[in-house]
From TrEMBL:
Name of the featured protein: Oxidoreductase
Cofactor needs: [2Fe-2S] cluster
Organism: Kangiella spongicola
The organism's place on the tree of life at top rank: Bacteria
InterPro entries, alphabetized: Cbr1-like_FAD-bd_dom (IPR008333), Cyt_c3_hydrogenase_gsu (IPR012165), FAD-bd_FR_type (IPR017927), Flavoprot_Pyr_Nucl_cyt_Rdtase (IPR001709), FNR_nucleotide-bd (IPR039261), MRET (IPR050415), OxRdtase_FAD/NAD-bd (IPR001433), Riboflavin_synthase-like_b-brl (IPR017938)
Length: 241
C-alpha cells in the first residue's frame, strides 16, 4: 500500500528553549491526518545541493484522539551544522513542505500493566505529550513520565506534564543532569528509573530520544529481567542521507 503523503503549511515557528523550537503545521492537501498518539512522520526536504533528505519527527499534538487532525505540532532541537535543523530553524510561516506517515509503534497498547514508565530525553518526550489525554482516561494504570534534560531551561511542555500529574495515577519526574532545582531529581533518567524499582512482573517501559540513553536504559531493564516486548523503544538516530 502506498504511504500517504501530505502537503503541509508552516503556521508558527517559535523558540521554546535556547535550543528547541516548536513548529505547528496546518494540513493543506489532504486537509486532515489520522495518527496514533506516539507516532512520527517523515519530511522530504530539499537542500542546496539539490539532493532531497528525509528526516523524521515525533507528533507532539495533545488531542483526545488523533482522528482527522487538521494540524501537526513538532518540537525540534538544533543540531550544529544539521541540514534539517538549519532549514526548520529558519523556516518562515507560510512555507510549504511535504511529509509522509504516520509511522511507528511507540503507542499505548490496549492492555496495559500496573505501571508504565515513559522515559524521554530532550525532544524525546514529544510522544508522551501526545499521550497525555490517553493517560487521563486510563486510570487503572500508574504512569510515570521521566523527562531528562541538562538544565531546567532546556525543558518544555512542563505545564502540560504537571497538569496531568495532578491526577493520582500520573506522576511526573523532571530529571536534571547538570543542576539542582527544587521539585526536580538531580541526575540522569536512568537513576530516577532505578529508584522506582522497575519490575517485569508489573511494569513496562517506553524509551524515546537520544540513542545512547535508550540503549543504556534498555540494558538496565534487561538486567532486571525485562523482555524485549516489555520495553518499547524509539531511537532518534541520525540519518545517513
Ligand atoms: C523516529 C524518529 C523521530 C525523531 N523525532 C525527532 C523529534 O521529534 N525532534 C527532534 O528534534 N529530532 C527528532 N529526530 C531526529 C531528526 O530526525 C534528525 O535526525 C535531527 O533533526 C538532525 O537532523 P539534521 O538534518 O539537522 O542533522 P544532520 O544533517 O543529519 O546531522 C548533522 C551532523 O550532526 C550529527 N548529529 C545529528 N543529530 C545529532 C544529535 N541529535 N546530536 C549530536 N549530533 C547529531 C550528525 O552525525 C552529523 O554529523 C527523530 C529521529 C527519528 C529516527
Amino acid at each position: 500500500m502506498a504511504i500517504p503523503s501530505y502537503k503541509v503549511r508552516l503556521e508558527t515557528n517559535e523558540p521554546i528553549t535556547p535550543n528547541v523550537r516548536k513548529l505547528v503545521f496546518r494540513l493543506e492537501d489532504p486537509k486532515t491526518i489520522t495518527y496514533k498518539q506516539g507516532q512520527f512522520v517523515s519530511f522530504m526536504l530539499g537542500t542546496e545541493d539539490g539532493r532531497p533528505i528525509k528526516r523524521s519527527y515525533s507528533i507532539a499534538n495533545m488531542e483526545t484522539d488523533g482522528v482527522d487532525s487538521t494540524y501537526i505540532e513538532f518540537v525540534i532541537s538544533y543540531v550544529e551544522g544539521g541540514k534539517a535543523s538549519e532549514l526548520f530553524f529558519n523556516a518562515e510561516p507560510g512555507k510549504e513542505m511535504e511529509m509522509t506517515g504516520p509511522f511507528g509503534l511507540l503507542c499505548l497498547t490496549e492492555e496495559l500493566p500496573k505501571r508504565v514508565f515513559l522515559v524521554g530525553t530532550g525532544t524525546g518526550v514529544a510522544p508522551y505529550r501526545s499521550m497525555i489525554e490517553q493517560m487521563r482516561t486510563r486510570t487503572d494504570t500508574e504512569f510515570h513520565i521521566l523527562f531528562g534534560a541538562q538544565y531546567l531551561e532546556d525543558m518544555f511542555y512542563l505545564d502540560d506534564f504537571k497538569a496531568v500529574a495532578l491526577l493520582d495515577h500520573v506522576h511526573f519526574h523532571p530529571c536534571l543532569s547538570r543542576e539542582e532545582k527544587p521539585g526536580c531529581f538531580s541526575g540522569y533518567v536512568q537513576h530516577k528509573l532505578a529508584e522506582l524499582n522497575p519490575n517485569p512482573e508489573t511494569d513496562i517501559a517506553y524509551l524515546c530520544g537520544n540513542p545512547n540513553m535508550v540503549d543504556e536504559v534498555f540494558e538496565m531493564l534487561k538486567d532486571k529481567d525485562f523482555g524485549v516486548k516489555q520495553v518499547k523503544r524509539e531511537k532518534y538516530v541520525f540519518s545517513r542521507f
